[in-house]
Amino acid sequence: METYQKTDWLPVTRKEMELRGWEQADIVLFSGDAYVDHPSFGTAVAGRLLEAYGMKVAIVPQPDWRGDFRDFTKMGKPRYFFAISAGCMDSMVNRYTANKRLRSDDAYTAGGLSGARPDYTSITYANILKKLYPDVPIVLGGIEASMRRLSHYDYWSDRLMPGILVDSKADLLVYGMGEKPLKEIAALLLSGAPFEALHELRQVAYLRPATNEKDKGNAAYIKLHAHETCLNSKRKQAENFRIIEEESNKMEASVLIQPVGRMEIVVNPPHPPLSSEELDKSFELPYTRLPHPKYKDKTIPAYEMIKFSVNLHRGCFGGCAFCAIAAHQGKFVVSRSKESVLKEVTLLSKRNDFKGYLSDLGGPSANMYRMQGKDLDICRKCKRYSCIFPKICSNLNVDHRPLLDIYRSVDALPGIKKSVVSSGIRYDLLLYSSQEALSAKSDQNAIKEAADKDRASREYTQQLIGNHVSGRLKVAPEHTENSVLHCMRKPAFSQFIQFKEIFEQIENRRLPEQQRNQNFRLNEAQKKENREGKARGRQELIPYFISSHPACGEEDMAELAAKTKTLNFRLEQVQDFTPTPMTPATEMYYTGLDPYTLKPVYTAKTKEEKLAQRQYFFWYRPEDKAFILKALHRLKRADLIEKIYGKKPGKV
Length: 652
Prior knowledge:
The protein is 37% helix and 13% strand. It has 652 residues and is of the alpha/beta class. Among the domains are: 6-206, Rossmann fold (3-Layer(aba) Sandwich); 469-652, Transcription Regulator spoIIAA. A nine-stranded mixed beta sheet has the order 3-1-4-5-8-9-12-11-10, with helices on both faces. A three-stranded parallel beta sheet has the order 20-21-22. Strand 6 (152-154) and strand 7 form a beta hairpin. The longest helix is centred in the C-terminal third of the chain and has 24 residues, at 444-467.
């Protein structure tokens, strides 16, 4: 394992700046997360990118915002601007549960301690810096800024908030992945251009005085309903969201302009997706891949989870209604080259603390590696929010062969005992038949290629379950009822049942005969072995489910309880729907409307309604039984009582 010096990390103190011979940083980057110099942490990525583009970057992780603000002045005034990222999560999601209770821990803080970041971190940091350094520009980035760039519903204050530039008073916002915009920002500023020149760049947003000017000819633009209009009309907010999502999902998007008060927010179109070569360069920057030494022996839980994992790609074309990945990383999947992946695995294998087990070879969805449109000209004209819902696009190249090749090549490397896939799997892609999607006019080459892809999907499924599961395989059906699943933009539950049958068939072939159909409880040592990939006992299929999602009623949850019980599941991985900025489900929660049809959508909102739905997950707990029985009588669903509890209903 390499020996590192403090100068191998970006500086976090004045002394570390002096060790590098700096009198002044070009950019001082404030982060709501602890500083982990790893490509899975956005602050490190932004810092290393700017460094690679010729900038001197200092980092202030988790500054104290409650005292005398010395953390905000210790690095001095930067030459160009202050940068702010709330961290790898929206700060309000990080700090609060779905019930709006403060969380007791923070995975992105040393020691897992809560309270190291404020509410609305980007706004809080920016307001402090504006008071201390009113003449220094501020640039926002990261997922919090990205998802709050225009009017958005904030669940924790229960109000529609304006784009984050308004309350933060920041001068620029970079949204999405930062490689291309940060490169252009660095080039312009280093060439001597004024900060205002950055307003012309792609993938940035800024505030300007409201104007009635027509388009200046730089690009097509769309004027959204004003923030004040949306405050008075939820329908107008829903109409805005549809435009925002469609433009976010296009390869060639328009400028978006939203008036707010006497100002207007201008959101320039995103850059085209990165190439594999560009993504490789980002992952191969000189990261130490370790937390900064300032944390000494304290563990950072989020780092512990990913330190022996490898990210294969970015982006997701699933388009799930409750998910923010596509809105931030993009709908179009960008994959690393095989060579880049193997290089990173080799680096990991040489660490002293590496025991031979890779905890994940994955991505936002583990089995989307190298999947994209067959004809990119068709993709350029497309504005669909999903490539696989309501059905898989005929232009999508569903091919698991490149991923199979990655798995085999990684497992063949010296020092690798087992590689695990911990990221979620899209089983609808595994069940898809390229042959069935062929037209009657397909030639023999197309027929052979489709047959090869289908064969690879079956082989991938076999390899995944047989060799790359660490005791538990995670999948996310999310619900059982098709009306709810349609609102979620998820496939029918029948596909999950089909995949479950395949999983069990492969498991039975994999296990020795004496272990087949054997249900046994694992002790803690065995569970640990499973997590580390050492155990060869029975593997579990672990489904994830959501309650209180838009379009989900109490009766839908009762059906979920009955159907999952019939499938012999006692659910563990469950959550109550939490509205997060800039997702379709959040817009439905706030407006009560489907933004595409403008038809009403029911959503559970009160604590009582949400608790009533959540309790159906735990039908097997004695303390929940009386409530569920009473509720099912009220719903006049005596049939479900028998399905769940195996007896005819009596009086409660």
